[in-house]
Amino acid sequence: MKTATGTVAAPKPAASRIRRAAIAVAAAVVAGLALPATASAAPNDARDPGDAVSVPARYAQQQLDWKPCDGQPALECATMAVPRDWHHPDAGADLSIAVSRHRAGDPAHRRGTLLMAAGGPGASGLLRPAGLATKAPKVGAAYDIVSFDQRGVGRSTRAQCQNPEQFQEFMAGDYRDQSPEAVDRVVSNAQALVAACEEHSGDLLPYLTTEQTVHDLDLFRSLLGERRISYFGPSYASMIGAYYGTLFPHRVERMVLDSNIGFEGTWEEFELGQPMSFQRRFDEDFVPWLAARDSTYHLGSTPQEVKDRWEKRRAALHDSPIVAGPVTIGPNQLDNGAIGAIYEEENFPYLAQGLAAVDNWDGADAAAKDMAGQVFGHYLSPEFLAEYFSVTCSDTPWTRDLDTWVERGAENTARYPLAGARTLAFSAVCASWPKTHAPHVKVTGANLPPTVMLNSVHDPATYYEAALGAHRALRGSRLVTVTGNGDHGQYPTANTCVTGVVERYLLDGRAPEHDLTCPSPQAG
């Protein structure tokens, strides 16, 4: 989801051709499993912190009119109305939240409702239940899987900022350039983005926060007729889940948080750690992978040769960007392509193919150039960033001194150039973002059932160090550390160790007794 970079995984290159590779059987779990661990039934008079916000009857008594989702026969869709501001529900026009449901495949043995959310902030979750039911058939058989488009996203009431042409200017150029003119241009572009957001979505922006979304979710739970729900949240959705569990702990039966935001602290603190983790993933995983395949890609037979080739090509793009129809590949686009691709190792070949085409553009064939366009020509979108900045700039406090960000941007550019170079661009947006009064949510885990948390050690976006902090804050949680791996998103995958832990918990209520480690299959 983000950064000084972007926490949400960027759109995958050549999406129709990219699939999760089949991998061998995982190693055994390092710790035993406990007896069933589900939340005890809350007494009738139990009140959660979130109950302090009242739900007017016009929202609580609405009916969800379920109909088949367009083009998704396995899904039902509906729309619910929510207040613009849950703390002042009579002020301002209502918002529309698009919701979806995939019915349990085995109704006779249905065990409840599993709510899932999307990452980002900025990604759409509406159509995801069908994918989870297919990839995790046991869970799809046992649960109604439901999801939604978060306020500000997709088919819900949406935020708007820039048009595609304006957005290209925000992403253009070379974020590494530290000349006064370049720095001024980056700050000016950031302020122009904020001005466009205020012009097109100004009265909506203060209410696009994680805390407001959590109240939307509890209304959704109520309209589904569920006293308690289970929850699965990857990436930014881990923060939504942690906030929901903090405000409505007695409404949670089981919770799985995958690839975790540092939700115990601020967005600023979390994002300042991302340049390190993206650089680590690039330098320690992708570059050696590419060097080992010099006979295929011809980009260097040692990590140093690969890095030197990368820097040479990037410098050339600074002076002469590649322009191919609507696609421009300059230094920032080269970085963006790498940032997006290294979320999952299955994308490494596509990044390598695209880089090889850029390195020899005149000699590349049409298919190679098309791959380069897919990898380096598509990253984020103005719609995505409208929600992304709304949440990350508003949830928690942000340093607003631009001189501080110019200095930090220069430091990160020198130390962690892949993603650190964009520190100034992204942080200057939040420094200029309209102030909000989002309530502070301190995650504690109080009154929650044992929560299962998953994280790989080299995740570039939701880095392991942040997961450790989130784990400490979420009292009673169990952390599953996936070693030999840097993928963003650990469930569902072919790692049978992870799958076993998650599904024993979701299906049988058996949470791990302690933190444990799941080696990746390829790590043996």
Describe this structure in words.
The chain has 524 residues and is α/β, with parallel strands linked by helices. Among the domains are: 51-159 and 228-245 and 253-267 and 441-519, Alpha/Beta hydrolase fold, catalytic domain (Rossmann fold, 3-Layer(aba) Sandwich); 168-204 and 382-432, no CATH class. Helices cover 42% and strands 15% of the residues. It is built from 19 helices and 14 strands. The chain has helices at residues 57-60, 128-135, 137-142, 164-171, 180-201, 210-223, 236-247, 267-291, 294-297, 303-319, 331-341, 348-359, 366-376, 382-394, 402-415, 417-420, 423-432, 464-473, 496-508, and strands spanning 33-36, 67-69, 72-82, 95-102, 112-116, 143-148, 229-235, 252-260, 322-324, 327-329, 452-456, 478-483, 510-512, 516-519. A 10-stranded mixed sheet has the order 2-3-4-6-5-7-8-11-12-14, with helices on both faces. Strands 1-13 form a two-stranded antiparallel ribbon. A hairpin with a 2-residue loop joins β2 and β3. α11 (331-341) packs antiparallel against α12. The radius of gyration is 23 Å and the shape is globular. 52% of the residues are buried. Mean pLDDT is 91; it is low at 1-45.
Summarize the SSE layout with pairings.
Elements: E1 33-36, H1 57-60, E2 67-69, E3 72-82, E4 95-102, E5 112-116, H2 128-135, H3 137-142, E6 143-148, H4 164-171, H5 180-201, H6 210-223, E7 229-235, H7 236-247, E8 252-260, H8 267-291, H9 294-297, H10 303-319, E9 322-324, E10 327-329, H11 331-341, H12 348-359, H13 366-376, H14 382-394, H15 402-415, H16 417-420, H17 423-432, E11 452-456, H18 464-473, E12 478-483, H19 496-508, E13 510-512, E14 516-519
Parallel strand pairs: 5-6, 5-7, 7-8, 8-11, 11-12, 12-14
Antiparallel strand pairs: 1-13, 2-3, 3-4, 4-6, 9-10
